[in-house]
Amino acid sequence: MVIDDIQFKKLLTAEEVQDIVQRMAAEVYQDYKDKSPLFVGVLNGAFRLTSDFISYYEGDCKVSFVKLASYSGLTSTQLVQTLLEVSEDIEGHDIVILEDIIDSGRTLKTLVDMFSNAKVNSFRIASLLYKKDTYQGEYAIDYIGREIPSEFVVGYGLDYNEEGRNLNAIYIIDKDE
Question: Which pairs count as long-range contacts for 102-105, CB under 8 Å and 24+ apart, including other chains?
């Protein structure tokens, strides 16, 4: 598959992605089955994850979004911009951040900083994809869908120059092309 003259190959099929999301929702449910957590999806990348995740989640829950920007083209920038903050009063809630991907950890640090002054009951982080070799953060990732190599990925909400978010599978750059 080609996006803007870059050849990508499939890393995870659509079925594998759905299996991962379903497993993550079940894991979170085990920890929150007697509560009503507030799931906070990180836009734009995690909009598909958030939608599918809550459809698999078996308990009561609330949903909100934040919007952060940290990528330009194929590379992560050094600056994370907050474009939209959670609009609800989050005091007293159990918060679970739903991230599409964690790589360097800069976006995650911004998220932790956003919620650290709020009086929440609990704060956990769930990420569909995790680049262990690239992660430089100091925070534990509570729920990891799948570790992947430290390479650029697209699909299932993840984009390359705003293209590819609609793909059901997840693709990695094909270095053999």
Answer: 102/127, 102/129, 102/130, 102/131, 102/135, 102/137, 102/141, 103/76, 103/131, 103/134, 103/135, 103/150, 104/76, 104/134, 104/135, 104/136, 104/137, 105/135, 105/136, 105/137, 105/138, 105/139
For residue 130, give both structure tokens.
Answer: 């995790």
Q: What are the residue numbers of the active site? A: 103
Structure tokens at 74: 């194929």
What is the enclosing helix (H) or strand (E) of 11? Answer: strand 6-12
| CATH class, range 15-150 | alpha beta
The reported pLDDT for the residue numbered 74 is: 45
Predicted structure pTM score: 0.87
